[in-house]
């Protein structure tokens, strides 16, 4: 580059017809769209691997349930739902969702074994996580109202990482902040005043 030329972060090329084409920032949306499509394809693959694993597990255990695969919040999401043959097995949820958490970890490991990459896949059975999310949003909103009224921090009951994330997101959306405190299994959210 000569001293009279300016570095603008663009490159030039020519088409087959000889026209000069400048490539720069305007190409970034195309690259971003390509990366987004690639990420979506990875998540779809994760979901498919998880569904295959879970289908095999349901067959071995002779349990009913259909599988739904989706993408939510940049994660593969798989749900075991009621099928024509029967209802989704609630025993796969267990007390407080403990069996569901363990099954989710096993499913993530199955995906990782196939892809070589760590998975953040979310698993739901019989709508348990969706129902729990709705209850947590209500709890978070009540805590926010209490903190706004009293001006004092509010400690919530112990929660899993998934549950704490739901509460943190709801508190942030309400314009307050929160933090996690304690050690597992008593780790909990503290909603803070402004």
TrEMBL record:
Domain R3H: 130-194
Protein name per UniProt: Protein jag
Xref: Pfam families: R3H
InterPro entries: Jag_KH (IPR038008), KH_dom-like_a/b (IPR015946), KhpB (IPR039247), R3H_dom (IPR001374), R3H_dom_sf (IPR036867), R3H_KhpB (IPR034079)
Chain intervals with Low complexity compositional bias: 1-18
Region (Disordered): 1-41
Bilayer-spanning residue ranges: none
């Amino acid at each position: 580059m000569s001293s009279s030329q300016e570095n603008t972060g663009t490159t030039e090329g020519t088409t087959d017809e000889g026209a000069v084409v400048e490539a720069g920032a305007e190409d970034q949306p195309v690259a971003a769209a390509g990366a987004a499509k690639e990420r979506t394809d990875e998540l779809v693959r994760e979901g498919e691997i998880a569904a295959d694993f879970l289908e095999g597990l349901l067959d071995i255990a002779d349990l009913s349930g259909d599988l739904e695969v989706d993408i939510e919040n940049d994660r593969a999401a798989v749900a075991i739902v009621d099928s024509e043959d029967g209802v989704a097995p609630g025993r796969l949820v267990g007390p407080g969702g403990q069996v569901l958490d363990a099954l989710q970890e096993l499913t993530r490991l199955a995906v990782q074994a196939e892809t070589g990459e760590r998975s953040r896949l979310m698993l739901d059975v019989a709508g348990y996580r969706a129902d729990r999310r709705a209850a947590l949003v209500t709890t978070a909103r009540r805590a926010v109202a209490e903190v706004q009224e009293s001006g004092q921090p509010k400690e919530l009951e112990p929660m899993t990482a998934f549950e704490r994330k739901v509460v943190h997101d709801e508190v942030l959306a309400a314009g307050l902040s929160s933090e996690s405190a304690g050690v597992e299994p008593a780790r909990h959210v503290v909603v803070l005043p402004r």
